[in-house]
Amino acid sequence: MSEQLKQRLSQLTESSSIGCLADIGHGIEKESLRINPQGHIAQTPHPAGLGSPLTHPSLTTDFSEALLEFITPVFQSPDESLAYLSNLHAFTFRQMDREELIWTSSMPCVLDDDSQIPLAEYGSSNIGKLKTLYRMGLSYRYGRAMQTIAGIHYNFSLPDSFWDMYKDLHHSELSLTDFKTEQYFNLIRNFRRYSWLLIYLFGASPAVCKSFVRNNKDHGLEFYDDATLYMPYATCLRMGDLGYTSDAQADLYVSYNDLENYALGLTNAIQTPYEPYKKFTSEDGEFKQLNDSILQIENEFYSTIRPKRVAPTGTRPLKVLRDQGVEYIEVRCLDLNPFLPVGIDSEQIKFLNSFLMLCLLRKSPPSDADEYAEIEDNLKTVVNRGREPGLELKQHGKSIALKDWADEILQEALSISELMDDIHQDETHSQATKAQLAKVEDSTLTPSAKILQRMDELKTPYFTFAMNQSLANSDFFRSQTLDSDVMTNLKEMAEKSNLERQAIESSDNIDFESYVKQMNAS
To answer: What is the pLDDT averaged over residues 487-496?
Structure first.
């Protein structure tokens, strides 16, 4: 452990305010496809009983009408967040067609052509049509298949009581808002340096259905069987070339050294036209995308982590972030674990909190373009070959064994986990980190290895494995008893969301074309 980290941990341990770390906040955003009994993407509309996806705070859609998104409020307790997420699933199953299922895996199956992947619809309001138009632009730019990939976004925040204490330890003269923003960017830079470790530990997409890559001749995958493609040591194909990749973004350099440079990089991408996208501009008055820039909006920028701030509906998130500073960070590189009912569990959450605290507390020097490229290369290596024996990565231009680097990071995370255990008066955080150390010692314990093991044991293709898990989840959630108060609350939330959508639709006072121009000019 570095002397800097030892000193920082010692200062925190000696602080009388250390108990504030019991109030670490987190929220979960989980995407999952609705599918029909044959494993194809559901063609039915978003279930009416779920309310309006435009305005519902917890039950909405992502790219497709069939791509559900479950969103929890901010919780301090992992068990509370998981219980809330479980209730959302149980409620959703009660509103869905009896024969439909929720696909448990990140990589979709079975895909037909793009016309069978319906875009999400959000009603007749300008903001609703804007959301669908943005997705239309994504479909032209990248194809719809890529947008059906699902994952978990983990939102992490620290209470102001922590930031007050931490600011005093730094003897910082910055305002609290500016200090928080500076430190969150320190966390982000370290997260990017070490995010390959999360890919190794939690990656759960080592294989895909052949239908997903039917139009991609350069995928570099091997045949597992007639219906499945894979890489023997792959961890998370979702985060590789098969996943959220973009030629337009390939050379896009966005600095994470501070908020101003980050915002400037994204603003330039939003304002810079990209020649190949010009062919998707509106014809005969019909919009095909929001604009022809490298990015239509900031959300189109693909990254393993984002600085975030809650932005009111209709405002530009990047402007709000720039004006008011970072409120929380969003981890975006987590696969759905198909062995878990909601794709994530308490052990993973507790480890993530220790890992993210390590990223904050560890020294985080500014990053440059060379390190940016090294980070991307390490990520790609672990995506495709993460469980390969003796695999080496690059650290400041020098080779280092994945196992050695992972051990170093996890031993430091364990020190933070032990501090968290002292605060919570249990051993669950250190146990969570020790479980990750075991995966480094034995790669067969990782989710990606377990998926291939199950396929081998059952002599079954990826589709059958994932379908079996989806059927088991359906049985689990359909048999789950929902508390009457929970059911009443979720029904009321759905009804309220419909009323809010209607209010938005009735308040529009300009035509859609003018609204789009106004948005692009902001």
So the answer is: 98
